[in-house]
Write a structure and sequence with these properties.
This protein is mostly helical and 194 residues long. The chain has one domain (2-191). Helices cover 86% and strands 0% of the residues. The chain is built from eight helices and no strands. Helix 2 (42-68) packs across helix 7 (165-180). The longest helix is centred in the first third of the chain and has 37 residues, at 2-38. The radius of gyration is 20 Å and the shape is elongated. 29% of the residues are buried.
Amino acid sequence: MLKNNKNRRWARWILVISIWTFFLAVILSFVSHYFLDRIESLFFSFVILLIVVFIGIIFDLVGTAAAAAEIGPLNAKAARRVYGAKRGVYLVKNAERVATFCNDVGGDISGVISGSLVAVIVFKLMVTVPFDQAEFYLGILMTALIAAMTVGGKAWGKVIAINYSTEVMLYTGILLTRLRNPFGRSDKCDNNSG
Protein backbone atom coordinates (compact mmCIF):
# COMPACT_ATOMS: atom_id res chain seq x y z
CA MET A 1 0.00 0.00 0.00
CA LEU A 2 2.82 2.41 0.92
CA LYS A 3 4.62 1.66 -2.34
CA ASN A 4 1.43 2.37 -4.34
CA ASN A 5 1.03 5.76 -2.61
CA LYS A 6 4.65 6.61 -3.36
CA ASN A 7 4.22 5.55 -7.00
CA ARG A 8 1.09 7.70 -7.28
CA ARG A 9 2.91 10.69 -5.79
CA TRP A 10 5.76 10.22 -8.26
CA ALA A 11 3.35 9.85 -11.18
CA ARG A 12 1.60 13.07 -10.09
CA TRP A 13 4.99 14.82 -9.73
CA ILE A 14 6.04 13.70 -13.23
CA LEU A 15 2.78 14.98 -14.72
CA VAL A 16 3.03 18.32 -12.90
CA ILE A 17 6.69 18.85 -13.83
CA SER A 18 5.95 18.00 -17.47
CA ILE A 19 3.14 20.57 -17.60
CA TRP A 20 5.34 23.17 -15.85
CA THR A 21 8.13 22.48 -18.33
CA PHE A 22 5.82 23.07 -21.28
CA PHE A 23 4.56 26.41 -19.99
CA LEU A 24 7.97 27.59 -18.78
CA ALA A 25 9.50 26.76 -22.16
CA VAL A 26 6.77 28.69 -23.97
CA ILE A 27 7.10 31.73 -21.70
CA LEU A 28 10.90 31.82 -21.67
CA SER A 29 11.15 31.24 -25.42
CA PHE A 30 8.66 34.02 -26.06
CA VAL A 31 10.43 36.46 -23.73
CA SER A 32 13.93 35.75 -25.05
CA HIS A 33 12.80 35.95 -28.71
CA TYR A 34 10.78 39.09 -28.00
CA PHE A 35 13.84 40.89 -26.64
CA LEU A 36 16.19 39.44 -29.23
CA ASP A 37 13.93 40.55 -32.11
CA ARG A 38 13.87 44.10 -30.78
CA ILE A 39 17.60 44.37 -30.14
CA GLU A 40 19.54 45.45 -33.21
CA SER A 41 22.95 45.20 -31.56
CA LEU A 42 24.73 41.86 -32.08
CA PHE A 43 26.64 42.49 -28.85
CA PHE A 44 23.44 42.59 -26.76
CA SER A 45 22.08 39.59 -28.65
CA PHE A 46 25.18 37.65 -27.58
CA VAL A 47 24.72 38.92 -24.01
CA ILE A 48 21.17 37.52 -23.92
CA LEU A 49 22.45 34.20 -25.29
CA LEU A 50 25.22 34.05 -22.68
CA ILE A 51 22.73 34.83 -19.89
CA VAL A 52 20.54 31.91 -21.02
CA VAL A 53 23.59 29.58 -21.10
CA PHE A 54 24.69 30.83 -17.66
CA ILE A 55 21.21 30.19 -16.21
CA GLY A 56 21.38 26.62 -17.48
CA ILE A 57 24.80 26.14 -15.86
CA ILE A 58 23.58 27.53 -12.52
CA PHE A 59 20.47 25.33 -12.55
CA ASP A 60 22.62 22.28 -13.27
CA LEU A 61 24.99 23.23 -10.42
CA VAL A 62 22.13 23.53 -7.93
CA GLY A 63 20.51 20.26 -9.04
CA THR A 64 23.79 18.37 -8.72
CA ALA A 65 24.49 19.92 -5.31
CA ALA A 66 21.05 18.90 -4.05
CA ALA A 67 21.75 15.29 -5.06
CA ALA A 68 25.26 15.33 -3.56
CA ALA A 69 24.60 17.22 -0.32
CA GLU A 70 24.45 15.58 3.08
CA ILE A 71 21.69 16.78 5.35
CA GLY A 72 23.70 16.70 8.61
CA PRO A 73 25.73 19.90 8.16
CA LEU A 74 22.63 21.79 7.02
CA ASN A 75 20.63 20.48 10.00
CA ALA A 76 23.39 21.76 12.28
CA LYS A 77 23.23 25.20 10.64
CA ALA A 78 19.43 25.16 10.86
CA ALA A 79 19.66 24.31 14.58
CA ARG A 80 21.88 27.39 15.02
CA ARG A 81 19.23 29.39 13.13
CA VAL A 82 21.53 30.25 10.22
CA TYR A 83 19.44 32.22 7.73
CA GLY A 84 18.33 30.04 4.81
CA ALA A 85 19.57 26.77 6.32
CA LYS A 86 16.11 25.36 6.97
CA ARG A 87 15.14 25.91 3.37
CA GLY A 88 18.43 24.24 2.40
CA VAL A 89 17.44 21.24 4.53
CA TYR A 90 14.08 21.17 2.79
CA LEU A 91 15.80 21.18 -0.62
CA VAL A 92 18.13 18.31 0.32
CA LYS A 93 15.22 16.30 1.77
CA ASN A 94 13.54 16.71 -1.62
CA ALA A 95 16.73 16.19 -3.64
CA GLU A 96 15.10 14.05 -6.34
CA ARG A 97 12.56 16.75 -7.13
CA VAL A 98 15.12 19.55 -6.91
CA ALA A 99 17.51 17.67 -9.21
CA THR A 100 14.71 16.90 -11.68
CA PHE A 101 13.54 20.50 -11.72
CA CYS A 102 17.00 22.09 -11.89
CA ASN A 103 18.86 19.64 -14.12
CA ASP A 104 16.06 18.62 -16.43
CA VAL A 105 13.61 21.52 -16.49
CA GLY A 106 16.01 24.43 -16.01
CA GLY A 107 18.96 22.91 -17.83
CA ASP A 108 17.06 21.48 -20.78
CA ILE A 109 14.87 24.53 -21.31
CA SER A 110 17.93 26.78 -21.36
CA GLY A 111 19.57 24.39 -23.84
CA VAL A 112 16.58 24.49 -26.19
CA ILE A 113 16.24 28.26 -25.89
CA SER A 114 19.96 28.84 -26.45
CA GLY A 115 19.77 26.70 -29.60
CA SER A 116 16.93 28.76 -31.02
CA LEU A 117 18.70 32.00 -30.02
CA VAL A 118 21.77 30.82 -31.92
CA ALA A 119 19.59 30.47 -35.03
CA VAL A 120 18.28 34.02 -34.62
CA ILE A 121 21.80 35.41 -34.09
CA VAL A 122 23.13 33.51 -37.13
CA PHE A 123 20.33 35.04 -39.20
CA LYS A 124 21.34 38.51 -37.96
CA LEU A 125 24.99 37.79 -38.75
CA MET A 126 24.10 36.64 -42.28
CA VAL A 127 22.71 40.07 -43.03
CA THR A 128 26.04 41.68 -42.13
CA VAL A 129 28.36 39.06 -43.68
CA PRO A 130 28.22 39.07 -47.52
CA PHE A 131 29.22 35.44 -48.11
CA ASP A 132 27.29 32.72 -49.94
CA GLN A 133 27.72 29.99 -47.34
CA ALA A 134 27.70 32.28 -44.30
CA GLU A 135 24.64 30.60 -42.78
CA PHE A 136 26.23 27.17 -42.96
CA TYR A 137 29.60 28.12 -41.46
CA LEU A 138 28.24 30.62 -38.92
CA GLY A 139 25.63 28.08 -37.79
CA ILE A 140 28.27 25.39 -37.24
CA LEU A 141 30.65 27.78 -35.48
CA MET A 142 28.00 29.29 -33.19
CA THR A 143 26.46 25.91 -32.31
CA ALA A 144 29.89 24.45 -31.51
CA LEU A 145 30.85 27.48 -29.42
CA ILE A 146 27.65 27.44 -27.35
CA ALA A 147 27.84 23.66 -26.93
CA ALA A 148 31.45 23.94 -25.70
CA MET A 149 30.56 26.76 -23.30
CA THR A 150 27.55 24.84 -21.96
CA VAL A 151 29.39 21.55 -21.46
CA GLY A 152 32.48 23.25 -20.02
CA GLY A 153 30.36 25.41 -17.73
CA LYS A 154 28.33 22.46 -16.50
CA ALA A 155 31.50 20.43 -15.89
CA TRP A 156 32.90 23.34 -13.86
CA GLY A 157 29.58 23.62 -12.02
CA LYS A 158 29.54 19.91 -11.16
CA VAL A 159 33.00 20.18 -9.57
CA ILE A 160 31.75 23.05 -7.39
CA ALA A 161 28.44 21.29 -6.66
CA ILE A 162 30.11 18.06 -5.51
CA ASN A 163 32.93 19.67 -3.51
CA TYR A 164 30.84 22.45 -1.95
CA SER A 165 27.33 20.94 -1.92
CA THR A 166 26.51 22.17 1.61
CA GLU A 167 27.50 25.73 0.76
CA VAL A 168 25.60 25.66 -2.52
CA MET A 169 22.46 24.41 -0.76
CA LEU A 170 22.86 27.01 1.98
CA TYR A 171 23.22 29.87 -0.54
CA THR A 172 20.31 28.50 -2.56
CA GLY A 173 18.27 28.34 0.65
CA ILE A 174 19.22 31.94 1.45
CA LEU A 175 18.24 33.08 -2.04
CA LEU A 176 14.92 31.22 -2.02
CA THR A 177 14.11 32.48 1.49
CA ARG A 178 14.89 36.02 0.39
CA LEU A 179 12.79 35.67 -2.77
CA ARG A 180 9.89 34.10 -0.92
CA ASN A 181 10.03 36.54 1.99
CA PRO A 182 11.56 39.77 0.69
CA PHE A 183 10.53 41.65 3.85
CA GLY A 184 11.68 39.01 6.34
CA ARG A 185 8.32 37.40 7.14
CA SER A 186 8.66 33.82 8.31
CA ASP A 187 6.92 30.90 6.65
CA LYS A 188 6.51 27.17 7.30
CA CYS A 189 9.87 26.22 5.83
CA ASP A 190 11.69 28.83 7.93
CA ASN A 191 9.99 27.80 11.16
CA ASN A 192 10.69 24.09 10.90
CA SER A 193 13.03 21.88 8.98
CA GLY A 194 10.48 21.11 6.29
